[in-house]
Amino acid sequence: MGAARGGILKPDLAGWLRTTFDRAPTDQGPFDRALTHGSQAAANYERLEFLGDRVLGLVVAEWLFERFPAEPEGALSRRLNALVTGAVCAQVARDLGVVPFLRLGKQARDDGAHDSDNVLGDVMEALIGAFYLDAGLDAVRGFIRKAWAEKIEAHAQAPKHPKSALQEWAAAHNRRPPEYEVIDRSGPNHAPRFTVKVVIGKLADATAEGTSKQEAETAAAAALLEKLGN
Amino acid sequence: MGAARGGILKPDLAGWLRTTFDRAPTDQGPFDRALTHGSQAAANYERLEFLGDRVLGLVVAEWLFERFPAEPEGALSRRLNALVTGAVCAQVARDLGVVPFLRLGKQARDDGAHDSDNVLGDVMEALIGAFYLDAGLDAVRGFIRKAWAEKIEAHAQAPKHPKSALQEWAAAHNRRPPEYEVIDRSGPNHAPRFTVKVVIGKLADATAEGTSKQEAETAAAAALLEKLGN
């Protein structure tokens, strides 16, 4: 539904907000800002995205905590990370019909920002931030659980740990199992940095850093999986 | 205050919880679990820490959003990261007198886990998770704002960005300014990985990865600052 104003058919933002969030905002200002890219105005979505990112993190964490009472912390973390990526947030934004309401500068429009996962993902988080400020945690919890409902059920199992996934990839492709080696350790004892290299025979390798050997190995496995097209 | 039981003077957990959280818990179970290290029992603090980490993140993010209305997202993120490190959470735990209530296995006790920033930081987040489940967001917001009050006011300015801090370090030590170079780019277009090397003349270098050039440069600057003892 559009309303003609000054000869241009403008999409009806107030109506869309009312439908999407199941109530009219007390103050539409933060929602306007959540839809505004830095290329369009200094009053853009960045601060609201900072807030909304943490709102989404808590609501999804609490939901996973309830929904998967037998899973250890590592499995919950991997589920959470998979549910709050920019690509998933962007998909939710598209499904909700955010695109016509984006406020982009000319350059960003020309660069295709209206279809960028980065921009749409950030806008989705900023809208969550705006709704949290407007209506509080209970309302935003209801909104997120509805918008993410299919996504949380999509995986019967928690996503695999990168090291397990790499191990399975190697076995499935008749390759030698991954080997990990710490190639550098720096930083003071209370804040060490490890650099780990992972190789699959002579096929491929990747290197990554972390604050523990385990973290660096995980990052290296993820980097190698990405190189291998996974 | 202790109560003698079976000849051993046990610290009074129920009394400590009442004083610390300003109310008696509806169910003490999650608090027991939040104080329990993995070396002591399978029912340990790890899942509650997963939840509490996000509760703390939201409460601090919202507080910074209000308290520093003119700061851009980058400055708020740096403040947040500085306020929720393991070391800061551990300090809050010590200040609140958590240590006598820790439940550690023998090996962890012998390894000094009662004074480990990692363990105490995790326990602090787990206690926040337990209190959130017990009393909700408003109560936990009040608790965190009191426990972190001095810490949020301690920095008149947001912590410096690692690239600015490295630039200033080089100038203060009469060294050449840091130079950044992308030495590797991998991954598909929609999920690139950049490896950046930063050097200060011939003095020192560090390498790090990120999902953007800017992120990899920031991580490399942080790694080099750490090598230089900052």
UniProtKB/TrEMBL annotation, chains A, B:
Keyword rRNA processing on entry: yes
Protein origin, superkingdom: Bacteria
Keywords associated with the record: Cytoplasm, Endonuclease, Hydrolase, Magnesium, Metal-binding, mRNA processing, Nuclease, RNA-binding, rRNA processing, rRNA-binding, tRNA processing
Subcellular location: Cytoplasm
Reaction catalysed by this enzyme: Endonucleolytic cleavage to 5'-phosphomonoester
Principal localisation: cytoplasm
Residues at which Mg(2+) binds: E49, D122, E125
An MF annotation (GO) of this entry: ribonuclease III activity
Keyword Kinase recorded: no
EC number, UniProt record: 3.1.26.3
Ranges where the DRBM domain occurs: 161-230
Classification via InterPro entries: dsRBD_dom (IPR014720), RNase_III (IPR011907), RNase_III_dom (IPR000999), RNase_III_sf (IPR036389)
Active site, UniProt feature: D53, E125
Cofactor(s) recorded in Swiss-Prot or TrEMBL: Mg(2+)
CDD domains (UniProt xref): DSRM_RNAse_III_family (cd10845), RIBOc (cd00593)
Ranges of residues in domain RNase III: 31-136
PANTHER family: RIBONUCLEASE 3, RIBONUCLEASE III
Function as written in the Swiss-Prot or TrEMBL entry: Digests double-stranded RNA. Involved in the processing of primary rRNA transcript to yield the immediate precursors to the large and small rRNAs (23S and 16S). Processes some mRNAs, and tRNAs when they are encoded in the rRNA operon. Processes pre-crRNA and tracrRNA of type II CRISPR loci if present in the organism.
Subunit structure: Homodimer.
Family: Belongs to the ribonuclease III family.
Name the record gives this protein: Ribonuclease 3
Species in which this protein is naturally found: Sphingomonas rustica
The gene coding this protein: rnc
